[in-house]
């Protein structure tokens, strides 16, 4: 079962309820971020955005700083895993592949697993697939994840995060077999 | 049009590699014009219309902000090529130190 919560990055106080599904409006698509800066108006649609935006540092008189998608993916992945209650990231298939890859020698777990981003010149939109732990309020968890991801990405990159879509893909119950098995030696 | 010699570009590459938060260069620094979208080709073979300068694509360590990383790289390039009018930096990837990665066992 997949539960999706969605809100704009700057509107933390108006997070939707746990039963809200992903709307068909500004979903994943090329119109979520505006890559060009020629027709971009920073105050046209985000009058409630805080004034802490630092994206102007990316385009300076000395030159331009471009950020690849994988950079934002890793920052968002690390910020998501920092939140208590997040067990893993990714859908079932990607988690299975990640488990397989982690058993190969010389490999490290992928930080961008379960994270998909669209990065423009000034803005970024992030989609997360999360496995939460049992007993955690999913609404509180999604708000905490969203807050941490927005803060981390905006602080580290200077990009404005327009939206963070969180899909709770599974609930981790726990490894009961390990707890119930008696010790083999005393 | 800004033109840099091979020796100067080698010096740029060496200076950028010596930055404390730069893990490695992706490709080689390219001199001339910068592509419109800001993403330089990996082999430095093609270029589009845009301001002249040097483009450097790097993989950095996780931790500092992108502005700090770009400032490090720009300072290194400016030291090696002081006459370059424009330095474009492309952060291609970040390397995360997995033991410091919170929440992962």
Automatic annotation (TrEMBL), chain A:
Region: Disordered, residue numbers: 1-61, 94-113
InterPro entries in alphabetical order: Asp23
Family: Belongs to the asp23 family.
PANTHER family membership: ALKALINE SHOCK PROTEIN 23, HYPOTHETICAL CYTOSOLIC PROTEIN-RELATED
Name of protein: Alkaline-shock protein
Source species: Parafrankia soli
